[in-house]
Amino acid sequence: MNNDKIIDLLEKFKSEQKALLPKVQLKNNFQKENIRFIAGVDVAYFDMQGKTKGVCCIVVFDLIEKQVIEKVHSHGEIRVPYIPGFLAFREMPLIKDAVKKLTKQVDIYMFDGNGYLHYRHMGIATQASFLLGKPTIGVAKSYLKINGVDFTMPQNKENAHTDIIINNEIYGRVLRTRVNVKPIFISCGNWIDLDTTTEIVMKLIDKSSRLPIPVRFADIETHAIRKKLLIKE
């Protein structure tokens, strides 16, 4: 894709994100006691037959039964180039196809990526919320530095956290989910507040990882499916 087309895409994507932003609500639109099924969403990429392909996996976890109850995936060619800050446009078609395969009604979607913690407050978790029509959470393993602002490291204890404040606005939170492990970077996607986001993430942490179970399992599943697809090539 030439530079002119990429510039046109950038303007189109920025315009779409700008139109969605006023619809973002960083407050709960649900009763916490009714939350049961949490879905982790992840997308991985690979090259096959000279084309860039992607696989999206969704893993649904039952908070009451404490077990995975459903796994679905989709895969296909990636038709949108990688442009920093516009990941949602690249991944949304695969996410949409995977969601169609779910049989369980999901209460909250949790993404391996950012939500409100984004240059235009429109990370994958936030932008995808409008497709899903459900509250969403962003969970990132690495920090997205915005306007040169660094984060403050939380104390080395479980559930220690510091807020990420940029231009006097809270974008997200640095959360230490376990002692002696690196923190993760969480943010609201949509229709949920930051304290509830933190509470739900912590409920989904076990001794195996610093990441919440649905996101970790979705990540594992994407790598497994990608490996199978590459073997078939």
TrEMBL record:
CDD domains in the record, alphabetically? Endonuclease_V
Report the principal subcellular site.
cytoplasm
Name of one Pfam family that matches: Endonuclease_5
An example GO biological process term is: DNA repair
Needed cofactors: Mg(2+)
State the protein's purpose: DNA repair enzyme involved in the repair of deaminated bases. Selectively cleaves double-stranded DNA at the second phosphodiester bond 3' to a deoxyinosine leaving behind the intact lesion on the nicked DNA.
Its cellular-component GO annotations read: cytoplasm
The Swiss-Prot or TrEMBL record describes its family as follows: Belongs to the endonuclease V family.
Name-wise, this protein is: Endonuclease V
Q: Which GO terms describe its molecular function?
A: deoxyribonuclease V activity; magnesium ion binding; RNA endonuclease activity producing 5'-phosphomonoesters, hydrolytic mechanism; single-stranded RNA binding
The record's subcellular locations are: Cytoplasm
Q: Where Mg(2+) is bound, by residue?
A: 42, 112
Q: List, alphabetically, the HAMAP family matched.
A: Endonuclease_5
Q: Where is this site: Interaction with target DNA?
A: 82
Q: Does the keyword RNA-binding apply?
A: no
Q: What is its EC number?
A: 3.1.21.7
For this UniProt record, the keywords arranged alphabetically read as follows: Cytoplasm, DNA damage, DNA repair, Endonuclease, Hydrolase, Magnesium, Metal-binding, Nuclease
Which reaction equation describes what this protein catalyses?
Endonucleolytic cleavage at apurinic or apyrimidinic sites to products with a 5'-phosphate
